[in-house]
Amino acid sequence: MNDQRKAPQAKMPDMRRPGGGGGGPMGARVNREKPKNTLQTLGRLLKYIGKSKLLVIALVCIMAIVTVSDLAGPALQGAAINTIKVAEDGSLSVDLDTMFLCLGAMGVLFLISAGLGLAQGIIAAKLSQNTVYMMRNDLFKKISKLPIKYTDTHKHGDIMSRMTNDVENVSNAVSQSIASLISSILTLIGAFTMMVYYSWVMALIACITIPMTIAISTNLAKFMRKYFVKRQKLVGALNGQVEEMVTSYKTVVAYGKEGKAIEDFGVTSGELKKSSILARVWGSIMGPCMNFLGNFQYVLIAAFGGFFVLNPNPLVPSLMLGDIHSMLQYSKKFTRPVNEIANQYASILTALAGAERIFEIMDSADEIDEGTVEVHVSEIEGNIRFENIDFAYEEGEPVLKGLDLWLKKGQKIAIVGATGSGKTTVVNLLTRFYEVDGGVITIDGRDITTIPKETLRRSIAIVLQDTVLFSDTIRANIKYGRLEASDEEMRAAAALAKADTFIERLPDGYDTMLAESGSNLSQGQRQLLSIARAVLADPKILILDEATSSVDTRTEMHIQQAMVALMENRTSLIIAHRLSTIRDADKIVVIKDGRVAEAGSHEELLALGGEYHKLYSNQFAGIAT
Amino acid sequence: MKTVFRYLKPYALLAIISPLLMIGEVMADLFLPKLMTVIVDYGINAAGDVSESELGSTVMRLLYGEGTYSSMQVIITFGVLMLLVVLVGGFFGVFCAYTAAKASQSLGDDLRRDAYKKVMSLSIEQTDKFTTGSLVTRMTNDVTMIIEFTEMLLRMLVRSPMFFIGGTVMLCTLDVKFGFVLLCALPIMALMLTFVLTRAVPIFSKIQQKLDRVNSVVQENVTGARVVKAYVREDHEFERFKTANGELRDTNMKVQKMMAIMHPVLTVVMNAAIIAVILIGGLDIANVAGSEMSAGTIMAAVTYVTQVIMSIMMVTMLFTSVSRAMASVKRVNEVLDADPVIISGDKVGESEEIAVSFRNVSFRYPSATGRPVLHDINIDIKKGETFAIIGATGSGKTSLVNMILRFYDATEGEVLVNGIPVKEYDLAALRSSISYVMQKSELFSGTIAENIRWGKPDATDEEVRAAARIAQAEDFVNSFSGGFDDYIAEKGASLSGGQKQRMSIARAIVRRPEMIILDDATSALDLATEARLRKALREELSGSTVIMIAQRIASVKEADRIAVIENGTIKDCGSHDELMRTSETYRDIYNSQMKGADEKEVAANE
User: CB distance A420–B432 less than 8 Å?
Assistant: First the structure.
């Protein structure tokens, strides 16, 4: 375990999965991480921010005014102080009227800029929250569009980390950095314009530091990025570890593996600490570097300015002392925003590293859904045909090899076969959780790849062995099958699934809140709920994949009648081990070696004395002897 | 808060050095303007005549000896000096960043480890109560928040007070009247601070709750992707997510709006103070004879007032982070302070004739009221016995075996293993002697061999293979291209239900435990495979006590004894044949499964 934890990436490409039933293969393990283009990520991020155009424009306008008033403030202040005059004899006098005027103007200006500042703060917050909100929504939408293969093969904790930590980092950068970036850029432009106004030659000299700034910052950034990306990855890994161990906590505890888990966690945590420190230190170098360049520029202007004042020339004919003063003031104004940008650098890089991980998910291929045939769910009758189906989760390890299967409308078909023979794969293919490698599956003669997925899946209800419930009320969980169902219908469905008795015994009945994944119910109760959900969905095609394996047989017998009623007029595909569940099927299909070995009714197959007979005898081995 | 400082202790040295280094950086920052003044006032304005400036003349004399200096000489000398000061300051800054990062990250690392360690010592009911999503955010987001806060604290701790105290003192030495300005400004700021903080703090913890909620919805959707897709509920789920996400956004907005108010108010206060200072100075010159005010004094006063108020602004920022960090500290503390409900005893028992006994045990879930799940359980399970438990869904079978492992403790009565009450048993010893296999297999990302070795880390390849063979897993494992080195993806999603169950059984067997509990652990196996598994278990682990919960009569039929649980207690107990004779419930179950099995006779006779 340890090795694997240390170098999960290295192992990924080797992953193989077997062709069992449950599901997902690794085939999808996408290309290894290439160093991606920072600029490209930045561009995409900006596009996101740009989606709130009005806010951005408003923000820029306000910031422009605030910047101007920031520049005007000191001027007024200076004017106010200049009203104090020194007379010849050294005594002081003050022109109070002018002073009051200046101070009054200052007061008004500050009130305006405070008001604008408030607006700016709120707009910046709105902008960042909106951006993050949209980003999360898009990411969630994307996740729901990903093929099952993706969630089957990626650590859930890591996916969650992208949704929370990484998005959060983007949010912080947007709320803090964007505003200061905008104001910095505006100040830079303003200061540069003023410099050009005084002397374009001097402005050019001031620009000497710009290529240096770019060279240093891009090179440093390359270094820093490495650590920031690594840090985000480790955060994701840590998340994954906590999530995995906590969800499987019972097993961890039962095997006394707390120590091992703690140790593994410690390794990741320690690595995270190390790379966080490195990221921080590299990040902190940027500030002083920029500071140095800023002051270098200051010295340059002072030196060249001094030189030009003393040696007027055709290019710089008449530079005054006062001009140099002003230019030096502006040079300082230059330094501050550059410093500011440098200070934001770390948070911007963190955001970029996060954004990259977010876009990584966004860039994964969607589930294929090219179905165009216009067919309404109600028009689907339920004649299903598997023709010569080949399928492998992993290349070279075929699970199905030329499977042929025919389910006529309203038929109940049971699929049996040894564990791992590919029974669940049939379900995965019919619902198009996975795509066939060869052959074609049709419903009512239509190739299912031509039917829009939504229509296809709406016509199918599925009850899985691993029940999935949501942290919501029991009512909402049952109504998941059909959102618009009335309470009576919901109750009827629960009653049909024999779930009503235990629900009504719960303190809040149908309004009982389920804990995360329904962990406050027993497996069996959870299964009854998911059966009720399928009942309510009232589909044309019903798939029961070990649906009653956690329900005790007597309860199952009670449900049986309900199940018979449920399967009435529907094409039903039943995967089960219990004879009691399958023997009433219209047809039993035995799958072996990736194809149908035998098919027929219970009696016919028994009489055949082949695979089914073997399975059946095994089933009862020792029961009646 | 206390907790955090406790965690800082090992890094006290770093934590002290860091602010000191910050002083170096601040000093450099403060020194720079003086050098600039020399360049401007004496290098440029006075064309190199530094005699008026103490700093200028001293430096120039030291470097070039007595004499007059050219303008360029002064500019370049002080220019170079400036750059040197910047470098030194930068060095202090980077070093400070390093120490602060090291101290705070180490603290975070320790905190994270301890919190995780604590989680690993909690009982099942406690982790259930916290929920997975919230534990994940506590361990990551909240700890990060604390780290960032500590780092900021270390860097700001000295900086702001230095500016504050220094500025106030300097201001008052200029003229006490200026002090009144601060006296007026400070209470206003203090008022606002408390106002914002008292309102913001509760919202911060609310933000984390909302984030937990977002996390939960994502987790459910990722784990339940199949069902979401099968019911085409992507839109519905998206709505659910949008609600959670929207609530998070709105709560965030609330706080940020509050913060947005703070900044302009501070600017107004600051500028009002500046206006007041100029006004006081101006009026003083106009009205007081022999006033000592001058333009220079007023300008200096403005600078100091600005500095003081800026430092207060920094403190304000610190305070808003405090409130944020407090919310996180509270959440991490909740984990750290959770006392494990299940506390290990210290006894270790020798294998006894009676492996497990329940004496008058009743059980009810900790938070539940009403009728207990189990009551009046009295049973002895002998060493080496195969003991089966059968009963309806939700009848408490799992609760019963969970008490043996002390996932939960009996509400009343006593559970004994090897003659020792489990509450007095050393927990590690107790659990290491028992292998527990659940119906819902929990596998871990890693190779197949690694997953089996989870049961016994030092198992040899041969032992791993043997365990897989007994668990009927060897064949399918061998069919994988990587064999035992094949990688299992996320929680074994790539394996079928039956394969996962056999993997978990192999994991249980490799330990060769004294007792193995199969909690409906073969439900996904077809009967043929299950029969082979039972046979192998009987042959290979003959000395082990086997407790098995099952639904199928076929699974339990050969057990030495079968307990039938109904209405929360053991209704009947005996061998299959006895129960067939005496237990009506058992016969019911039998008949429910044997419906139509009469043909079976036909099959058997052929």
Answer: no
Nearest CA in chain A to B117: A262
Q: Which amino acid is at B558?
A: E
Is B282–A94 a contact, with Cβ atoms under 8 angstroms apart? yes
Cα distance between the two ends of chain B: 78
- CA-nearest of B493, B505, B387 to A15 is B493
Read off the pLDDT band of A520 (50, 70, 90). low
Do the beta carbons of residue B354 and residue B381 sit within 8 Å?
A: yes
Q: What is the dihedral of CA B53, B57, B58, B62, to 10 degrees?
A: 160
We report the CATH number of the domain holding residue A473 as 3.40.50.300
- Contact (CB<8Å) A96/B439: no
Which one-letter DSSP state was computed for residue A349? H
Please provide residue A390's backbone torsions phi and psi, each rounded to the nearest 5 degrees. -110, 140
Other beta carbons within 10 Å of B485: 15
Coil, strand or helix at B444: coil
Task: Identify the residue whose tokens are 């539940």.
Answer: B368
Contact B264 A115 (CB under 8 A): yes
Instruction: Give residues with Cβ within 8 angstroms of A565, minimum separation 6.
Output: A496
Residue A128 in domain: no
Helix A321-363 vs helix A258-310: crossing angle, to nearest 10: 150
Q: How far is CA A464 from the centre of its chain?
A: 26
Residue A352 lies in a domain: yes
pLDDT of residue B3: 64
**pTM of the entire predicted model:** 0.72
Task: Supply A19's token pair.
Answer: 């062709």
Q: How far is CA A236 from CA A269, A276, A283, B224, in A?
A: 11, 13, 21, 20
Tell me the two tokens of residue B433. Answer: 């002697």
Instruction: Give pLDDT tens digits for B347-364.
Output: 887 777 888 999 999 988
Clarify whether residues A356 and A476 are in a common domain.
no
Range of the domain at A350: 192-365
Among chain B residues, CA nearest to A145: B234
Structural domains of chain B sorted by starting position, each given as residue range(s) with its CATH number in brackets? 1-120 (1.20.1560.10), 123-341 (1.20.1560.10)
Do A231 and A346 fall into the same domain?
Answer: yes
Token pair 């039993």 is found at A588
How far is Cα B354 from Cα B376, in angstroms, rounded to an integer?
19
Please state the domain count of chain A: 2
- Judge whether A502 lies within some domain: yes
- List pLDDT tens digits, range B19-38: 888 888 877 877 777 777 77
Rounded Cα gap, residues B36 and B14, in angstroms: 33
Strand extents, DSSP E, B140-280: none
How far apart CA A286 and CA A276 sit, in angstroms, is 16
Q: Of the candidates A333, A365, A397, which is a domain's last residue?
A: A365
**Is A271 contained in some domain?**
yes
